[in-house]
Write a structure and sequence with these properties.
Blueprint (H helix, E strand, L loop, with lengths): L16 E4 L2 E4 H22 L5 H35 L4 H8 L3 H8 L2
Helix pairs in contact: 1-2, 3-4
């Protein structure tokens, strides 16, 4: 079954899934990408227009923070799903920790619950 290469959701878990050569992206990840690009563009405009009011710059930063938070949440969900799958395959916490750059105990405490 096809799944999003970014968040890991399957085609039946998303509103739409665009399939390409070796990569797929769901409608939700596209929306995050659009917001990220819009934020980047707004930041570039704010950097060019040093006379812009501080309020506009604050709004851009708040928008960027929201987009970043959404990306982080999606990636955390994906990481937890990957770890569940790895654990279901019988792979131990030592190997998981090593792949994440942490020791076994830290990996199990962080992702074992």
């Amino acid at each position: 079954m096809l799944s999003c290469s970014f968040c890991g959701k399957t085609a039946d878990q998303t509103g739409a899934l665009l399939a390409g050569p070796d990569v797929n992206i769901c409608d939700e990840c596209i929306a995050v990408g659009v917001r990220t690009i819009e934020t980047r563009d707004a930041l570039e405009l704010a950097a060019v227009d040093r006379d812009a009011p501080t309020v506009a710059k604050d709004e851009v930063l708040l928008s960027q923070m929201a987009a970043t938070s959404e990306l982080v949440d999606r990636q955390c969900e994906r990481l937890h799903a990957q770890i569940r799958e790895i654990r279901d395959r019988g792979i131990g916490w030592q190997a998981i920790g090593a792949s994440l750059g942490m020791d076994q105990q830290t990996a199990e405490e962080r992702f074992g619950a």
